[in-house]
Amino acid sequence: MKNNNKADSTINFTRKALTYLSKHTSLSEPEAVKHFIAQMKANNGYKKSLCIAYNHYCKHYKITWTMPTYIPEEKDITPPKRDKILMLIAQARKTLGIKIQLSMETGLRPIELCRLKTRDIHTDDRTVTPITAKRGAPRTLKISTELTTRIQEHIIKHNLSPDDKLFGGTPETYGRKFRTLRNNLAKKLNDPSIRAIRLYDLRHYFCTKKLYDIKNPYVVMCLMGHKKLTTTQKYMHLLNLDDEEWTCEGATTLQEATKLIEAGFEYVTEMDGTKLFRKRK
What we know:
Layout (H helix, E strand, L loop, with lengths): L7 H17 L5 H10 L4 H18 L20 H10 L2 H13 L3 H6 L5 E2 L4 E2 L12 E2 L2 H13 L13 H19 L2 H4 L5 H14 L2 H8 L4 H5 L12 E6 L2 H9 L3 E6 L2 E7 L1
Antiparallel strand pairs: 1-2, 2-3, 4-6, 5-6
C-alpha cells in the first residue's frame, strides 16, 4: 500500500482492521469474513471500511471475493459553538492551542494541518497554502493577525527552516491530544456539550461560518478543498439555525465603512445617518 502511495492513515486503519478481523475469523476464507462483518453490531460506515481493508488484503494475496455493498448512514452535522472552541484553545498548551485555532480558522483536515511546512505560512498577507488531501484543488486560506503572530512565535521558538514541518506528530497524535484536552475540560466544567465536540467538527464550524459570511457555496467549496459542490451543500440546512452572536459596528464616513468591509463586516441598514454593519463572532 505504501508503494501504491496510500496515505499513512489508510495504511494504519487497514492494519488495525485486518488485525481485528483475523481475531474473529479466517482471512483466507472470504465468505467467513463477509458473514462476520454482516453479523456485526456496527454502523454501515464502519462495515464498509472493514470491507475496503479486506479488499486490499484480497488483492495482495490474489483471493477472489465479491465485496458487499454497505451504504453509510447520513450523519447529522452539528458544528460546535465558537465560545466552546475558544475555551479549548485557552485551556490547551501552546502548540496544541495553535493547532486548534488553525483548524477553526481554516477548516484544514487534520492530515493537511500535520503536513504543513513553515514555507506554507505566509505571514505578510496572513495566508496558509496547504497541500490539499483527497486530491482536492490547491487553496489559499486567510488567518487572523493573532494566529499569525502565534505561529511566528512558534517558528522562532523552535528555530524552524522553510522546509521543516510546522508541527511534529501525526493526525492520530493530534486527535488523541485533542480528545484528552476536551474530556478534561468537559469534566472540569461539568459540561457534556464540550465532550461531544470532535476534532473534525472544527472543520464543520469553518464551513458553516463561511457559508454564513460569503453566501456562495462554490467559493466555500474551494476553501474547503471539496471536489464536489454537493459535499458543501450538505451544510446548507444549518444556515437556518441562526442563533450565533454578532459584532455590530457603525460608520459615518466612507473611510470608516471601507475599513469595516475590509475587516469582514457586512452592511445591514442605515439609521440616523449611521451605516450599520455586522460580522459573526
